Each structure stands twice: as C-alpha cells, then as structure tokens.
Amino acid sequence: MIELFSKSLAMKNINVMITSCGGTVMPGIIQCLKIVKERKIKVIGVDMKKDAVGFYMCDKHYVVPPGNSPDYIDAVLNISKKENVDVILPISQQEFIPLSRHKQLFENIGTIIACSDYESMKTANDKGLFLEFLKQKNLPCADFYLPKTIDEFEEDVYKLGYPEKPVVMKPRISAGNKGFRILREDIDKKSLLLNKTDDAYANLSDITKIFKNGTFPDLVVMEYLPGEEYSVDLLVKNGEPLIIVPKVRVDPLPGLSRVGIVKKNPEVEKLVSDIVKAFDFNYNINIQLKYSENGVPLPYEVNPRIAATIILCAAAGANLVYYGVKLALGEEIPKVDIKNGIKMVRYWKELFIGEDGELFEI
Q1: DSSP 328-354
Q2: Residue 132 pLDDT more than 80?
Q3: For the chain, which end, N or C, has fewer CB atoms within 10 Å of the first or last residue's CB respectively?
Q4: What's the pLDDT band for 24 if we cut at 50, 70, 90?
C-alpha cells in the first residue's frame, strides 16, 4: 500500500533519481522532469555505463553495478544518502525487481521507490506468469502456452493454428522484445537475408533445429494478434487508476514505437483498469495489447514501470512521470484533460561532448 507522506514536502525542491540512464529513450523521460514549473527538481542519474546518454542531461550522475549485481542495492542506497534522494524512478526490469524487494531499506533513510510491491512486480515481469494471472482472474488475454520441452513447443505451436496462422514466441523474462519472433511458414528467407528488415520472423523448422539439442529455454508461445496495437500508460494508486492514456503504436519496431498517437478507447480503458485492480498495482504502469482477428482487445504484456513513450502522455496533457513522483510524496494529483489525437514521431538526435566533458552544438 502507498503511504501518504507529509504534505510539508509539497512544492519544496526535491531530488529524484532515475535508473538505467543509458537507454535511447531516456532524454524524453528526463525531459518530463525538466519541464516541471511548480518546483525545482534535481535529477540524479545512475547507469552501469559511463557514457549513458542520460548522464549529459542530469544534474548529477553516477556509475553503478548492474541491477543483478549483489553490490547494486548498496551502491544505490549510498548515493541516495549522499544526494538526499526523495524519490527513485526505476526504469529497467533488471533494477525494479531488486529495488522493489528492498523498499524498506530506502524508506528508512527517507527515500521512496516509486514502484509496486515486490510480489506484483515479480509476477508482472514474467510474461508467462502475467498471462496465467489474467487467466486465473477470468480477465481477457491472448491464447498462450508455456512449453517445457521442444516437443511441447512444437505441439503448442500447432495448437495455435500453425502453419495456417502465424504464432508468436518470446522469452518469459526479457526486455525490449529480445528473443521475440513471429513464426510463419511463408517467410522469404532470401529476402530477409539480403534486405534490411525490422521484422522478427522465423519458421518452426528453424527454431526446432536451434533447440533440438540442449536446454530448452523458458518461453511463451502465443496466438498472433493482427489488429490495432495499443500501449496504455496509467498512473495507479492501490489498484485504482487515476489517469489512463491509451496510445496506438504506428509502424512499431520490435520493442520500440517509432510513431504513436493518443487514441481514447473506452473498451481498452475498461480492460486495463480491471487489470491494474486485479494486480493492486501502484505508480506508473504500462499495458500492451492488440486486437484479435475477432476484433477483441487482448493484453499480452505489462510493464510495471515508466514506459519508453511516456513523454507522449506529457504532450497530451498528463505528465505521468512527474505525477508518479507527486504520488510518491503524497501530493494531490491534478485533474487532467487528455488531448486526443496527439502524435509522436521519434527520431535520432546526437550529442557532442568535448575533451573537457562539456556538451556543445554544431
């Protein structure tokens, strides 16, 4: 449960830590804090790489061990003490799992970790457990299987309609759609080899050859959803959604939206509301879903953290990154009017750093 901290903190200058500052989408997330007008926010970035792009936009930054290192928690705890960090925003799954598990250590020094409880995070982080949870709660979800062997994998792929229908496979625990593949029999391997493509296609025979000998990995095989794709951002308090921003993913790369459009959809908003209530989630949550061939929206993944395209929510009238900070501090969340139809087009932009470490422009 979220504790409501003293209102005396309201509007005072605060220190916010952001993890995983090396991500290519980090500039947009940091910008959500930099555009805040009602108070001064000192942004402290941490990452395991010294050239993390977000470091050049933060007020202070530190290199820390990887999130799965036994030294990670102590490193972040010491930085939090040194910088008097008020709120930590965990960005990657490698970090939000250990941070959620050690929330009390940070609360003891006055630092709030803005993420859900450990058990909820652990279930949400496993794509298989997430789908099983939805099924147990009688909530809609894509049809799926969790094979344990290569033989079960082949059987499950055929149960899902292969080769007449494409089938999706992905690791149960991964980030950024690593290992995601769409299995279809009609792929042109020569075209995939010789032409630049962002599509993650394979066929069943290729996959079975790879896994025939050796340890079979923890995978989800799932029905292919051909319809419109939504990435929905929510701000949640004790399972109750405070703000919902549905976004349609247009021309997506695997794991990354190139173009997104805010598109209100009562059917989708009702479904994601039911999911966050069932999980009793808190803070920033992202749920991904697509429409099935029968025209039904079906969730296939949840990200219990700040999502990559959350700056689109700020452009549409809801700065969910900052509102997550305010929620952690026990402050009132303002009423928002989400602007429908706002579009985001993502592009690459370079930073230039001189020998003295200072940024410069050309």
Answers
A1: HTTPPPPP----TT-EEE------EE-
A2: yes
A3: C
A4: confident
Sign of dihedral through CA atoms 206, 293, 290, 156?
negative
Name the residue type at position 218.
D
Take residue 259 and report the two structure tokens written for it: 């173009």
Residue 281 lies in a domain: yes
Span 210-254, pLDDT tens digits: 888 888 999 999 999 999 999 999 999 999 999 999 999 987 655
- Token pair of 30 as six digits: 């940091």
Report whether pLDDT(322) > 80.
yes
In the structure encoding, which two tokens stand for residue 167, read together? 């089938």
183 and 239 inside one domain: no
Residue 236 sits in a domain whose CATH number is 3.30.470.20
Residue 351 located in a structural domain: no
Residues 212 and 295 in one domain: no
Q: In the numeric block, which tokens belong to residue 284?
A: 């920033």
Rounded CA-CA distance 122/82 in Å is 29
In a domain, 157, yes or no: yes
Same domain (yes/no): 232, 216: no
Structural domains of the chain, count: 3
Question: How far does CA 203 lie from the centroid of its chain?
Answer: 28
Where does a domain end: 162, 195, 223? Answer: 223
Distance of alpha carbon 95 from alpha carbon 289, whole angstroms: 24
* Displacement of CA 123 from its chain's centroid (Å): 14
Q: Are residues 199 and 100 in the same domain?
A: no
In a domain, 359, yes or no: no
Q: How many helices (H) and strands (E) does the chain have?
A: 12, 18
| The pairing of beta strand 41-47 with beta strand 14-18 | parallel
- Residue 103's domain comprises 7-115
